[in-house]
Amino acid sequence: MNDPIDPVSTSPSTAAAPRRGSSAWLWLLLALLVAAGGGWFGWREWQQREVREREQAADGAQRLEALEQRVDTLRTNQDAQNRRIVQADSTNRVLRDELHGIGQRAALIEDSVSKLADPNRHGAQAMRLDETELLLTLGQQRLQIAGDLEGARRAYLLAGGVLDGIDDPAYLSLRQTLLQETAALKELGIEPRMQAMAKLDALAQGLSLPEDTAKTVAAEPSPWWRRAFGTLIETQPVNRTVASHPADRAAALAGLQLEISLARAAAERRDAAGYKVALKRAEHWVQRLSPPSPAQDQQLARLRELAAMPLSLTVPTLGTTLQQLRQLRTAAH
């Protein structure tokens, strides 16, 4: 007897199909889980990577900011160092100048000490040289400024007497030069300015000009019209330049005296230009006071001679002794 056949057990293909379907779903689920896990892990890794990049960027920015701050600090320190260097340079320059000044003062002190230790400077010879230099300077200034020739001569004579007391042969040529200059001063005679002033005074005191011949002619008989109208009208030639009226002659004589006084004042202050101009105007007044005559020519010649006189002394060798003395004293020190 045959057993009944079980539809499930009797069909092996039908039983394997559900198993294969369930395993496929399982594998698919596993694949999805793996893909989801991989995606989650990838997303997580990407997020962490983004976080790390942001942290690195922030860290880089902080480091850059810190580096910039440090660079700014270094620049500030560098500027401060530069200012300190400049200040130190200025201080060193000031110290160098002060040290140089101290060196100069030390040199001056050393020079002063050496001069104090020099027996010739504060001895009798140095005193005589100082006195000689002072006398020569006074004589030269009195002659050039005041025109005092006698005072200059006395100063040079005194300087010669003082210089004779020095026995040093180095000053032998100096004494010879002083003698030559003193002799040149003696040969000058009278000082030109004083001589010109004396001659002007003599001219003003002894001025004698012949009067116009019109007075002598007036004594002759006049024509009837002059006798009739002489008290009303006075006639004289048009080309007449000589003052014949007493008032005109008095004015002309006063003008001449004034010009002589102006010439004397110009000579006293050594104004050569004003001196000559005043004497030139005096010639005009002389021609106004007298007609052409030998007396007038004599007076004009005297005025021109006075105008040609010099007002200052010219001594080519003046000051030679003083200059030589200073050179010798400079060479000695």
Kindly summarize this structure in a few lines:
With 333 residues, the chain is mostly helical.
If you had to describe this structure to a student in words, what would you say it looks like?
There is one protein chain. 76% of the residues lie in helices and 0% in strands. The chain has 333 residues and is mainly alpha-helical. The chain folds into 3 domains: 30-116; 124-189 and 317-332; 192-230 and 241-307, no CATH class. It is elongated.
Largest beta-sheet details: none
Give the overall silhouette: elongated
Average pLDDT, rounded to a whole number, is: 77
Taking all Cα atoms into account, the compactness measure Rg is: 64 Å
The span between the termini is 171 Å
Uncertain residue ranges:
1-15, 212-219
SS field, number of helical segments: 11
Helix content: over 70%
Strand content: under 5%
Number of domains: 3
The helix-and-strand class reads: mainly alpha
Protein name: Uroporphyrin-III methyltransferase
InterPro entries: HemX
Coiled coil: 57-84
Organism: Lysobacter yananisis
